[in-house]
Write a structure and sequence with these properties.
This protein has two domains: about 5-195 and about 275-295, Creatinase/methionine aminopeptidase superfamily (Creatine Amidinohydrolase, Alpha-Beta Complex), CATH 3.90.230; about 205-270, Orthogonal Bundle (Arc Repressor Mutant, subunit A), CATH 1.10.10.10. The chain has six helices and 18 strands. The longest helix is centred in the first third of the chain and has 24 residues, at about 5-25. The strands form five sheets. Strands 8-7-9-17-18 form a five-stranded antiparallel β-sheet. By secondary structure, the chain is of the alpha+beta class.
């Protein structure tokens, strides 16, 4: 990794951290979820970054994957447990981080604290020569010692330039036979903690999309849309609401045609299968010669 590349990773991480904490202060009772999301994303652009993925708001028993659509009217409520997950890129170099906010109450403060403690325990373990299963073990032990469950089928992930999920999977439970980390690896570690079943699933549309395959499509507007999606987002996830900047009047129609053609898919909302509340904490971490360095702080 060159000095210039490292500087871009660090710059992206720093801006991701700032955007996350800017967003944290916006999450308040009766505030529009759409407005808050758009303010966070504007902050990223105003500070010289781009979005590595749509800002995620996973609320209460939703574990992951939801962003407001252009038509979302919901507001935050007192007692909501909000996972805010923000991803920034500078020239394709990505910073990915998350935290959990409880609005106006402290019923789940131990759950939230446990996700942070599990993240800190994982970062302590991370380093060259370490099998990612050891990180999972540290996360699982920390969470179970506090009386909760890790979400076993949500994982952290390796990150490369313009590639948010680059092959390394970082488990939240003990696993054998995982990747052995080496200097220069960049990983997102993200423990999810629940008082429910410890698994997620679902099929509902999260309003977050990704390109599945590129091929010709006869519809001219849909063809222009997929070209622009490729040009702007370079394989990274994107939001339905962003597409209205590309085609003011036909974005929804073009998106539906691309989905019917199998060229674009949505990520499903991942609900906690025991209807448990979920808390999340996340940092992007660089594996160094002697240990690890948190990039998103």
């Amino acid at each position: 990794m060159s000095i210039e590349e490292l500087e871009k990773w660090k710059k992206a991480g720093k801006l991701a951290h700032k955007a996350l904490h800017f967003g944290k202060n916006l999450i308040q009772e009766n505030r529009s979820m759409l407005d808050v999301t758009e303010e966070i994303e504007k902050y990223v652009f105003d500070n010289g970054g781009k979005l590595a993925f749509p800002t995620n708001l996973a609320i209460n028993n939703v574990g992951a994957h939801w962003t407001p659509s252009s038509k979302t009217t919901e507001v935050f409520s007192k007692g909501d447990l909000v996972k805010l997950d923000v991803g920034v890129h500078i020239d394709g170099y990505i910073g990915d981080n998350a935290l959990t906010v409880e609005i106006g109450t402290s019923k789940y403060s131990k759950l939230v604290d446990t996700s942070r403690e599990a993240l800190n325990a994982a970062i302590e373990v991370a380093g060259p020569g370490i099998n990612v299963g050891m990180i999972g073990y540290a996360v699982q032990t920390t969470i179970e010692n506090r009386g909760y469950k890790p979400i076993a089928n949500l994982t952290g992930h390796g990150i490369k330039r313009y590639n948010l999920h680059s092959g390394i999977s970082v488990p939240n439970v003990k696993e054998n036979g995982g990747t052995v980390l080496k200097p220069g690896d960049i990983i997102a570690i993200e423990p999810f903690v629940t008082d429910g079943a410890g698994r997620v699933g679902g099929k509902r549309n999260s309003n977050i999309y990704h390109v599945r395959q590129i091929r010709n499509i006869k519809d001219e507007k849909a063809s222009k849309m997929i070209d622009e999606i490729q040009h702007r987002y370079k394989g990274l996830p994107f939001a339905e609401r962003w597409l209205h900047n590309i085609q003011e009047n036909d974005a929804t129609n073009s998106l539906n045609k691309l989905m019917r053609a199998g060229m674009v898919s949505y990520y499903p909302i991942l609900d906690e299968l025991g209807d448990g509340m979920v808390a999340q904490s996340e940092h992007t971490v660089l594996i160094t010669n002697s240990g690890s360095e948190v990039l998103t702080n």
